[in-house]
Structures are given as C-alpha cells and as structure tokens.
Amino acid sequence: MKKIIIMMLALLLVPLLGQAVPCLVCQLNAEIPSLTSETRNLDPKVVKLAMKAYSCAQSIGIGHPGILTIIDFSLPSTDKRLWVIDLKTKTIVLNTLVAHGEKTGGLYAKYFSDVSGTHESSVGLYLTGPTFYANDGYSLRLYGLDKGFNDMAYKRDIVIHGAWYVSEAFIKRYGRLGRSWGCPAVPKNEIDPLINRIKDGTLLFAYFPEKKWLAKSKFLHCPIHDSDLALFKADFDKKKAEIEAHIAEERKTEDAMSVAKPKHKKPDTQSKPVKQVKPPAKPA
C-alpha cells in the first residue's frame, strides 16, 4: 500500500517539477521551425545541439543571454554557414561566409584539432571576448570552453577577423573560399556588424559531426544532478578566472597602445585580382 501511495505522489509531482524548472531547451526548440525557415541551409539538428550547449552554459552562469552564434563546418565553404541568432526576437540577424583552417580541408572541412601549429579549425562552444586591432584589422578574441576540443583557442590566437580570401569573388575564381590558419575568418565588409553584435561575452557554437566531441562534450551532455553540476561549475569557475585574467591583460596592453592605436578604417569592398589561394602568414 505504501509503495502504491509513493508511486502516485511521484506521478503527481513530475509535472509540478517540470513547471518549477523551466526547460530552456524546450522553449528554444519550439522556435526552431521559424528560425530554420529563414534560411535554406540551417540544419534543425545543428540548431538543437547549439541550443543544448547554450542552455548548459547558461545554467552555470557562462555567457550573456539573448545572442547565439552558430557555425556549421559540415557545409561547404561556399555556403553562408555562420548565423547570428537573436533569441529574444527569435530572428536571424546575420548570415555570412566563414573560412576554416587550411589543414582542415578544401571545399569541405574534414580535420579538426586544438593543437598549436596544426592550422586546423576547432569544434565546440566558445565565449567571445574583447575586440582588438592587429594585422588583419578589427578582430575579436575567442575563448574555447570545450575542454580537449577548443580550450587552447586563446593560446593558439584563434580569433574572428576579416579576410580578403573570404568573398564571393574568391569563390567565383577558385570554387571555394580561401583558408585561414585556424581562425573563423569572415568577409571584410561583414566584420564590423558581426563583431559589434557578438563581442564581450556571447556564446558561439562551432559544429561538425566529429564523433568524439559529440560523445564527450560536457555542454552536449550537461550534468543533471546538483552535485555533478556543482563540480562542473567549479571547474568552469577556474576557466572563468583564467579568461578574466586574459581580458585584463588585453585591456592593459590596449591602454598602453591607445596613443598609437590605428584608426578603424572602412573595409575595402573593391574587387582585386587574387594571385594566391594561401592567405598571408598569420600565427595560429
């Protein structure tokens, strides 16, 4: 009799528990049809995975809410395979081309690594950082959050920047985009709106059907029990402190160079003859 009563109470409590803890993934997944209908090649399965990772990160206090960037490296480089989604308005606010690393593949991406010097792209969840100016102009720091898959991004100097070899003109001439040394490079005329929309602490999800990552990523298999979630959060508190230290260092360097800081020029949108497929040397 006691067992029957306990079972009945459990059945009554399940829906109440579901109401008490809002399912962010469920809410976001409900919007996938309207999001994917806005573009021909945004895979609903990729969006679901991205939202799952986003929800997990939010549950432990990582990333500003409202904006999610998705890169689908399973698509050819000739496709516009980067999307910025405004989760508040449930709209895609930017969709553009993005390059992969020169050792990751040609038209299609095949190989991924988080090792310095490989010139390969990395999959996983990233946190955007501060902006800065370098040889490639206006750029954005990225911090990899997926341990073992992209957490060396800062040390590898993996950043978002504009590139001459990411353009429709390049595709027309070579049948694919040019390639970076591992950075998700975008068209030069898109770099300003992209960076200004996603900078300073939003989440970016870089996808490829890489079996090990899909099976091992903590963000795709978020801890359910409170004790496991607490350990997960504690681990990322260390990562957060490391990122904050990097940002403080960046700010200090920026302040020291503020007098000599170059003016932010408008990107050159004029087509120029392309002589080389390989981009200029850039540390990865």
Morphology call = globular
As residue ranges, the low-confidence spans are 1-22, 264-284
H/E element string? HHHHEEEEEEHEHEHH
Could you name the CATH homologous superfamily?
A: L,D-transpeptidase catalytic domain-like
CATH class: Mainly Beta
* Mean pLDDT value: 82
Strand and helix map with partners:
Blueprint: H1 2-20, H2 24-29, H3 32-36, H4 44-59, E1 67-72, E2 82-86, E3 91-96, E4 124-134, E5 137-144, E6 159-163, H5 168-174, E7 186-187, H6 191-198, E8 203-207, H7 211-216, H8 226-256
Structure description:
The protein is an alpha+beta fold and 284 residues long. The protein has one domain: L,D-transpeptidase catalytic domain-like (Beta Barrel), CATH 2.40.440. The chain has helices at residues 2-20, 24-29, 32-36, 44-59, 168-174, 191-198, 211-216, 226-256, and strands spanning 67-72, 82-86, 91-96, 124-134, 137-144, 159-163, 186-187, 203-207. The protein has an eight-stranded mixed sheet. It is globular, with a radius of gyration of 21 Å.
